[in-house]
Amino acid sequence: MTGQEQEFAFFPAQVVATRRLGPTMLRVTFGGEALAGFASGGRDQSCSLFLPHPGQAEPLLPYGDGDGWFAAWRALPPSERAVMRSYTVRARRAEPPQLDVDFALHGADPADPAPAGPAARWAAGAEPGDRVVLLGPAVADNRSVGFRPPEGTRTVLLLADETALPAVGGILEWLPAGTRTLAWVEVPDAADIQDLSDEERLDITWLIREPGSPSRLLPSLREAELPGDATYAWIAGEAGTVKELRRHLVRERGLDRRAVSFAGYWRRGASEDRLREEAYGAPSP
């Protein structure tokens, strides 16, 4: 990437279609001519998605202010400024320009004990024509892709909960044929299990998490026999669980910490708004 290239850009888009993948997951397809410049999808490519509040025709976002857009956005009243959330681009297509984003609909069902966040509520009611804005890659090789196995990797380990399931799907589609892959994916309902790959060298373990119970990822990993060398691990999901899994692989299994990529997609008891406020040292509105 040269110094003249802009790594990320804003892309106005609208909902083209929605499709329920299971009790927890909903796929929303976005389209629009601006997405022709959206340069990357798949693997764990992330983007920022800006959503309107109920009653707004489009998200209120001062993205025409150049590099000052974030400060201008934060200066707007929280009840009016666009809702900003981070999501994985599950898939991208060039003709016509479209991309898929899978939403975990935690709390969107009235029977759920905890209320849904604004993004889950928006996704549950999304209809064709609904307008959004994405902040995503303008160049294919960008810092929002975390899955980067070193040269010579022979085995890939994937550890994820349902929030990272879209990234797992994108990674499996990207991996060269024949790559030995061991995956553990935890979901809240057996009906959320997806047929991700027919690759013979994929060994995937699906774990069903009981409501209110701790993650089963670490106990399951402890019981597994892992390859001895040339292994690259990718971990994503709840931040506390991710930290425990990484510690186990590095301290107890002896993996080189440089061969372990990890990302806390969410933190138990904290909203993304709260985490962003903590990161920027400002009180929550």
Structural features, described:
18% of the residues lie in helices and 30% in strands. By secondary structure, the chain is of the alpha/beta class. The chain folds into two domains: 134 residues, Elongation Factor Tu (Ef-tu), domain 3; 112 residues, 3-Layer(aba) Sandwich (Rossmann fold). The strands form two sheets. It has a seven-stranded antiparallel β-sheet. Strands 10-9-8-11-12 form a five-stranded parallel β-sheet. A hairpin with a 4-residue loop joins strand 1 and strand 2. The longest helix has 14 residues. The two termini are 37 Å apart. 33% of the residues are buried.
Keywords summarizing the entry:
alpha/beta; Elongation Factor Tu (Ef-tu), domain 3; Rossmann fold; 2 domains; 6 helices; disordered C terminus
